[in-house]
Amino acid sequence: MRYLVATDGSPSSLKAARFLVGHFCPGGDDEIFVTYVFPLPSDADCYDGIVQLPASGNDPRVAAVAAPVLARTCKALDATGSNVREVCLVGNPAREIVEFAMNLDIGLIVAGTRGRSLAKELYLGSVSNALVHRAPCSVLIVR
Predict the structure, then answer these.
(1) Averaged pLDDT in 10-residue chunks for the chain of 143 residues
(2) How far apart are CA 112 and CA 108, in angstroms?
(3) 2-142 belongs to which CATH class?
(4) Would you give the distance in Å from CA 110 to the centre of its chain?
(5) What pTM, to 2 d.p., does this model score?
(6) Where are the chain's structural domains?
(7) I need a labelling partner for 137 at 20 to 30 A (CA). Which of 31, 47, 63, 129 fits?
(8) Are 140 and 26 in contact (CB under 8 A)?
(9) Please, what is the angle between helix 127-134 and helix 93-103, to 10°?
């Protein structure tokens, strides 16, 4: 099976990775994609000519942020024996995760939630909520 662990380095995303290990016991035949999405502002066009925003996960500025986050999450998955791959994307986190899951035929997305209040979630948005409603596969949200 192919799993996608969405991480942002928060305690809840690390808890989600550990939950996957403890409850689903992925093994040697499974693939786990540990995915970090470097978020871009929703109004990125406003920055044209002012600052050059990163275009891909290969940008050194993105790699500097993503590397320690991915490393911590991968460490939580060491005991699985699965093929663990680090993936760094750039853009809207929910949109990028859903697209990646569709393209790679992911069977389960595992993500944490920060447990924001309803008001903050409505104002700021919620990646976990968007994943539940848009993902092409099952989604496990760990609180």
Answers:
(1) 95 94 89 95 82 91 96 92 94 96 97 66 68 95 90
(2) 13
(3) alpha beta
(4) 8
(5) 0.90
(6) 2-142
(7) 63
(8) no
(9) 30
